[in-house]
Design brief:
Its cofactor is Mn(2+); Ni(2+). One of its GO terms (biological process) is methylation. InterPro entries: ARMT-1-like_metal-bd_sf, ARMT1, ARMT1-like_metal-bd. It is a single chain. The protein is of the alpha/beta class and about 450 residues long. It has 2 domains: about 130 residues, Transcription Elongation Factor S-II, Chain A, CATH 1.20.930; about 230 residues, Rossmann fold (3-Layer(aba) Sandwich). About 45% of the residues lie in helices and about 10% in strands. It has a 7-stranded mixed sheet with strand order 1-7-6-5-2-3-4, with helices on both faces. α11 links the parallel β2 and β3. The radius of gyration is 22 Å and the shape is globular.
Length: about 450
């Protein structure tokens, strides 16, 4: 049984950056993990409480006054979780209606005793645990067990992106099947968070100047910060499959909103040009990391696009709906693996069905920072270490990772690049201003695979 009330003194944490060749951890006060656990996560929990308070009249109207008891209990639970985090207490097991509680409890019980509290655990374990605990309060309520407290934020992001969506919808019509178009779409997809901000700065009167994809790629203006661009290898991977009866691309999604819109445009391009016969999108089973895509977000997004006042955006929405009806663009079966604490190299041990699904696919595209952290195990590798080595044996199919850099986990950089960036931009690893498109194929060999790690908590 895990104890839940062991407090720790702030002075016991180390005033240092996370050392190389170790797991990211809030134990190191100069790490982004520490900042997140000390400041960002409490802020997110406060935001959830404020969302519930502001929506109380609406929820009472929908469910009746009985929902007020649920709200009271949930808010108290969130406040208690905030206190537990601030005191660095130990993780507690799940005992409610959580469908994945057996897997979580097994994982928590296997953690080494010194790594069972928020600031001493691997950051990925602690952060995932916090988001999982948060949703468990709703799962164990009487009336709000399906409530998505991040839904409004995700929807608002897309609603505010009208200029950018219209521009992209126009620019991506009639693209040819060539590497240049494919590469630009990939880069726009990678930079979508920054891109939406820059593109939306232009007025509707100037929109006509930004409907060409070449100009739009320039508007993004961020390619000088693309540290690794292996989109040529991704293109070659898809071209090698030409003529195959079935070419499946697994798409492991990240954020909803405008970023997901660009995911859909890239998927549309793959399907339209026969680079894939099916794109299978993997989304989260529960509200996750504020903005991650869930099944209901996919449905809402396509419906929103279809009903959009801009004809070109509406046309894109209807085309995507047809592709979904034809089972060319599909949602993968829901799994809690994506909202678990494990690195991806343990997929073969803890979710063999998912692993087998991937082995039949031509390519898996992993989007976003958290997916990258899980691919690399939240481990501080040498920045020049090869991508395939850092995957630690996880290569069920050809793999592409597209990610803007938001934490200290990175690999595959040319020798000396990380040191140079640290000198010219000390915050480069957490700013989100730099990105990578990395690739490795499933047939590539590496001596590291002769003795892959087997402990899921290592």
């Amino acid at each position: 049984m895990l104890r839940s009330s062991i407090s720790s003194n702030e002075s016991e944490l180390l005033d240092a950056a996370t050392p190389r060749h170790s797991l990211l951890s809030g134990r190191f006060k100069q790490s982004f993990a520490y900042v997140t656990l000390r400041s960002r996560m409490p802020g997110i929990m406060l935001q959830v409480i404020q969302t519930l308070q502001s929506k109380q009249p609406e929820l009472v109207q929908e469910y009746g006054e009985e929902v007020e008891k649920d709200l009271r209990v949930i808010i108290e639970s969130v406040e208690r979780l905030k206190r537990e985090l601030s005191r660095d207490t130990q993780f507690t097991l799940f005992h409610g209606n959580e469908p994945d509680k057996l897997e979580w409890n097994a994982f928590l019980s296997e953690l080494p005793h010194p790594k069972r509290s928020y600031f001493r655990a691997c950051w990925m374990h602690a952060e995932c645990y916090l988001y999982r605990r948060l949703y468990s309060f709703f799962e164990n309520s009487r009336l709000l067990h399906n409530f998505d407290y991040f839904a409004d934020l995700k929807q608002e992001d897309l609603k505010l992106s009208g200029v950018a969506m219209q521009s992209l919808a126009v620019a991506t019509r009639g693209l040819g099947k060539n590497f240049e178009s494919f590469s630009k779409l990939m880069r726009i997809n990678l930079w979508s968070n920054h891109y939406e901000i820059q593109l939306s700065a232009f007025s509707h009167e100037k929109l006509s100047n930004y409907v060409d994809i070449d100009l739009m790629a320039q508007v993004a203006g961020l390619d000088k910060h693309l540290l690794i661009n292996e989109s040529t290898l991704v293109w070659n991977c898809l071209m090698k499959a030409k003529g195959q009866k079935q070419i499946v691309v697994e798409y492991i999604c990240d954020n909803a909103g405008f970023e997901f819109f660009t995911d859909l445009l890239l998927s549309e391009y793959l399907l339209e040009h026969g680079l894939a016969t099916q794109v299978r999108m993997h989304v989260k089973a529960i509200p996750w990391y504020i903005s991650d895509v869930m099944e209901r977000d996919v449905e809402w997004t396509v419906s929103f696009l279809m009903q959009h006042k801009q004809p070109m955006v509406s046309m894109v929405g209807h085309k995507l709906a047809r592709m979904m009806a034809e089972q060319r663009l599909v949602l993968a079966p829901t799994t809690h693996f994506w909202t678990g604490p494990q690195p991806y190299f343990v997929m073969v041990d803890c979710n063999i069905e998912l692993y087998r699904m991937f082995t039949g696919s031509q390519l898996a595209i992993f989007k976003g920072d958290l997916n990258y952290r899980k691919l690399l195990g939240d481990y501080i590798w040498d920045s020049a270490e090869e991508f395939i080595t850092c995957l630690r044996g996880f290569r069920p199919c050809n793999i592409c990772a597209m990610r803007t850099v938001k934490c200290e986990v990175i690999c595959g950089l040319p020798e000396g690049v990380a040191d140079h960036l640290l000198r010219v931009d000390p915050q480069w690893m957490i700013s989100g201003n730099y990105g990578v498109i990395q690739y490795t194929d499933s047939l590539k060999c590496n001596c590291y695979l002769s003795s892959p790690p087997s402990k899921r908590n290592s």
